[in-house]
Design a protein that fits this description.
mainly alpha, about 50% helix, about 190 residues
Length: about 190
């Protein structure tokens, strides 16, 4: 290969890597990966054969079909976290519940390996939040709303008109002296 071909290959590989990094950042990638990897030992161990010399040990249990179903569902939930990130909370909670059920059904959750991977993956899927666009302000602390708390946490006083009475009705209870009810509620 020539030096020019290697430079072009490196540039293409760099673009693919940046593209994958962007794709990975827009979804709960690690939660989906751990959930997917957690399903593999849960569905594998009940059907595995261990050979020691001439003796074959088979881990056939009555819950083999249940283990297979739980493992396949965990793999599907991991893929769901990747390809449908808007349903990440459902997939994460379902992965946590299936991981807990696998303790009883599937040889202690794939000898605890699959249980821990699925449990951590589900928790990561539930806790992941999409990135906000650069121009959008953060919700929560530090935002200023009319009549609400400002940066210091102290409520902002409503602006009063010339006579000391606000021109707009800022009391939403319906019992303001400005609307003629003088503190009394009407029944009907």
């Amino acid at each position: 290969m020539s030096a020019e071909a290697q430079v072009g290959l490196g540039d293409k590989l760099g673009r693919m890597r940046r593209s994958f990094r962007g794709w990975r950042g827009r979804r709960p990638f690690w939660g989906g990966l751990l959930t997917l990897l957690g399903g593999i030992p849960i569905m594998y161990f009940p059907y595995a054969n261990l050979t020691l010399g001439t003796m074959t040990i088979r881990m056939a249990t009555t819950a083999g079909a249940g283990s297979l179903i739980i493992g396949v569902l965990l793999v599907v939930l991991g893929l769901t976290m990747w390809f449908q990130p808007h349903s990440r909370v459902f997939a994460g909670v379902a992965a946590i519940l299936l991981a807990l059920v696998s303790l009883v059904v599937s040889n202690f959750g794939g000898f605890v390996i699959g249980f821990l991977l699925a449990l951590i993956g589900g928790a990561l899927g539930v806790s992941w939040a999409p990135e906000r666009p650069a121009g959008e302000p953060a919700k929560g602390r530090g935002t200023q709303r009319p009549g609400g708390p400002v940066d210091g946490g102290v409520p902002e006083a409503p602006a009063a008109a010339a006579g000391g009475v606000s021109g707009a009705q800022d009391d939403l209870s319906g019992t303001s002296p400005t609307n003629g009810t003088n503190g009394r509620h009407r029944a009907g």
